[in-house]
UniProtKB/TrEMBL annotation:
Domain Flavodoxin-like fold stretches: 3-176
Stretches that traverse the bilayer: none
Gene3D superfamilies reported in the protein's UniProt record: 3.40.50.360
Full protein name: FMN dependent NADH:quinone oxidoreductase
Leading EC class: oxidoreductase
Taxonomy, superkingdom: Bacteria
EC number: 1.6.5.-, 1.7.1.17
PANTHER family: FMN-DEPENDENT NADH-AZOREDUCTASE 1, FMN-DEPENDENT NADH:QUINONE OXIDOREDUCTASE
Reaction equations catalysed: 2 a quinone + NADH + H(+) = 2 a 1,4-benzosemiquinone + NAD(+); N,N-dimethyl-1,4-phenylenediamine + anthranilate + 2 NAD(+) = 2-(4-dimethylaminophenyl)diazenylbenzoate + 2 NADH + 2 H(+)
The organism of origin for this protein: Streptomyces osmaniensis
Length: 216
């Protein structure tokens, strides 16, 4: 049975969050297509993981046999997250853009699971694992847009997930999500609606394909 690790990081509920709406659609289709599979849902907004501190950082670069009690405790928490990630056959991440980049809770999670010599570096223990990221944003930051140079979500996550960890990375990008709430963006509402429908369609298609592939 395949396992989907579903990670959300939006501070908003599903009815108010574009990233959660799309990850929720993806997960529901996955479960319909693969009812015997397992879904692990980690909500980083509701239950944030510890930020890396001196103990957890230095523990990642030293022999466990030499760890202090503080290092051992901090490292054990990192290992739990890493083992959960390694156990997944597929990963789904909701990554809304906050102040041009990912939420700090998601950054903290990634800091914990990126471990040289295990998940990163020559080992890459999740190499080839399919990872789908729903990268929602209030405006438009794609190629050719005025804010193209401010796109630090896909660029960063591509570097971490694909280059460092070796994941098979794919993005779904709902854009202009602030249009319905911002009067200055009123004329962009039709483009937002089209982007949202496209993202939901992509989530449905990708979830079906992935579930069928892993169930085969």
């Amino acid at each position: 049975m395949a396992t989907l690790l579903h990670i959300d990081s939006s501070v908003f509920s599903t009815d108010a969050s574009s990233s959660r709406a799309v990850t929720d659609a993806f997960r529901r289709i996955w479960q319909e297509q693969h009812p015997e599979g397992t879904v692990i849902h980690r909500d980083l907004a509701a239950q944030p993981v510890p930020h890396i501190d001196a103990h957890s950082h230095t523990a990642g670069f030293s022999d466990p046999a030499t760890h202090t009690p503080e290092q051992a405790a901090a490292f054990a928490e990192r290992v739990k997250l890493i083992e959960e990630l390694e156990s997944a056959d597929a990963v789904l991440i909701g990554a809304p853009m906050y102040n041009l980049t990912i939420p700090s809770t998601l950054k903290a999670y990634l800091d914990n699971v990126v471990l040289m010599g295990r998940t990163a570096g020559d080992a890459q223990s999740i190499k080839g694992t399919p990872v789908t990221v729903v990268a929602s944003r209030g405006g438009a930051y794609g190629p050719g847009t005025p804010r193209e140079g401010y796109e630090y979500v896909q660029n960063y996550l591509s570097a971490i997930l694909a280059d460092f960890l070796g994941a098979d990375l794919d993005f779904i990008v709902p854009e202009l999500t602030m249009a319905p709430a911002n009067p200055a963006m009123a004329e962009l509402v039709p483009l937002f609606e089209a982007s949202r429908e496209r993202a939901l369609d992509e989530a449905t298609t990708k979830a079906k394909q992935l579930a069928q592939k892993l169930a085969a």
